[in-house]
Amino acid sequence: MNVRLSTPRRLATIAIALAVAVPSLTACGDDEPGSSSDPNAATTLTWWHNGAQDPGKGVWQSIADQYHAEHPNVSFKVEPAQNEALKTKISVALQSPNPPSIFQQWGGGALATQVQSGKIMDITDATSSWIKELGAGATGWAVEGKQYGVPFGLHVVGFWYRTDLFQQAGITAPPTTMDELNAAVTKLKAKGIAPIALGGKDKWPDAFWWSYFAIRECSLDTVKNTVKNLKMDDPCWVKAGEDLKAFLDTKPFQDAFLGTPAQQGAGSSAGLVANGKAAMELQGDWELPTMIPLTEDKEYAKKLGWFAFPTVAGGKGTPGTALGGGDGYSCAVKAGPACADFLKYLASVPVQTKLVQSNTISLPANPGAISAIQDPSLKTVQEYLNKAPYIQTYFDQALPTSVGQALNDAIADFFAGKGSPQGIVDAFNKAVANK
């Protein structure tokens, strides 16, 4: 049943999905001393984020500058990096003696894996007086009840589409069923238009497809239990792969999609849609601001619409269940009290409003900034997020890191014509056995 939910309830669904995969931890301690506990002590925070291009790059720097102006004892060394490169950098840094003071954090089972390094600060006490302002969604950045990060934006994945290309192909309404999506693909091909852009080079966009078929085929209880107990034994998981195979056989993607990046350059999957070279892309809400530096068309946003992943006939998934997650930040143990205070600043309504209005984020983590959303398509996304009965966190993020990576790799291989629907499930189970 698709029930209208209030914002706190909507955040709670994200929190549940992020939290179910958290394993029991016995984190090792950090024997080296942290920064001074004196909040007035001069300190420099090294900050890693994925806003490698404007507007994000400039906006994050301006936020650091403003915080420094208000807190002269706190300086920043801001080091933006492209998303894929950043994830690798963070993984390596957490194995070193000196990780960055602040770094991007996506929560869930991956955060739980990182906490075991002993290098991520427990900010429970520092955030206890204000973290409830973000709603229950903030628990997605907690492990065993302790806060290890703070979200700054929430996400949901769906279809971005070109209204002008749909019109050219005679598609009068966004697809709501797989039959309608297949019909749209056929109509677009008949007009010589690439139906769907896919950044297969980065693997994670492939996983969105399998994941959505999975949450359409599998009951909500099955999905939750699989993520919590790490047992993928229900036949619905294989059925999801069979659905994906049937869709891949229609050849819905652009030529050479396996070598196409998701967000880097005009030739990326995001760039193809932004420049009218493809009609659709299954991506997160972040795609609208991501497209800004990828096209010279300043009116591109007016040509875009958004719709949810279609229903799958016979599927046992709860209608309206969405795939999503969020972005946040964690502090290194050595960062000191200034770091947690800065995360509070980032989560405040004025800063969250600035992030939305500057197109740095799409959907704010603080409900008090939702009114800042002005783009009609993003309002549609926010409304869908509000109504969703459950938000399943991307599986590669919800699961322990090694398991999530193995699943992504198996799905990517499947897109490349290797493996089978059962092989994806087998890769998951093998990774669980070996973790």
Question: Which helices and strands, and how do they pair?
Answer:
Layout: H1 7-19, E1 43-49, H2 56-70, E2 74-80, H3 83-93, E3 102-105, H4 108-115, H5 124-127, E4 142-143, E5 146-147, E6 150-162, H6 163-168, H7 178-190, E7 194-197, H8 204-217, H9 220-229, H10 236-248, H11 269-274, E8 278-284, H12 287-290, E9 304-307, E10 322-331, H13 337-347, H14 349-357, E11 363-364, H15 376-387, E12 391-393, H16 395-398, H17 401-415, H18 421-434
Parallel strand pairs: 1-2, 1-3, 7-8, 10-12
Antiparallel strand pairs: 3-10, 4-5, 6-8, 6-9, 6-10, 6-11
Helix pairs in contact: 8-10, 8-17, 10-18, 17-18
What does the model show?
The structure is a single chain. The protein has helices at residues 7-19, 56-70, 83-93, 108-115, 124-127, 163-168, 178-190, 204-217, 220-229, 236-248, 269-274, 287-290, 337-347, 349-357, 376-387, 395-398, 401-415, 421-434; strands spanning 43-49, 74-80, 102-105, 142-143, 146-147, 150-162, 194-197, 278-284, 304-307, 322-331, 363-364, 391-393. α8 (204-217) packs across α10 and α8 (204-217) packs across α17 (401-415). The two termini are 37 Å apart. It has two domains: 7-155 and 324-376, Periplasmic binding protein-like II (D-Maltodextrin-Binding Protein, domain 2), CATH 3.40.190.10; 164-322 and 396-434, D-Maltodextrin-Binding Protein, domain 2. The protein has 435 residues and is an alpha/beta fold. The strands form two sheets. Strands 1, 2, 3, 6, 7, 8, 9, 10, 11 and 12 form a ten-stranded mixed β-sheet that branches. The chain has a two-stranded antiparallel ribbon with strand order 4-5.
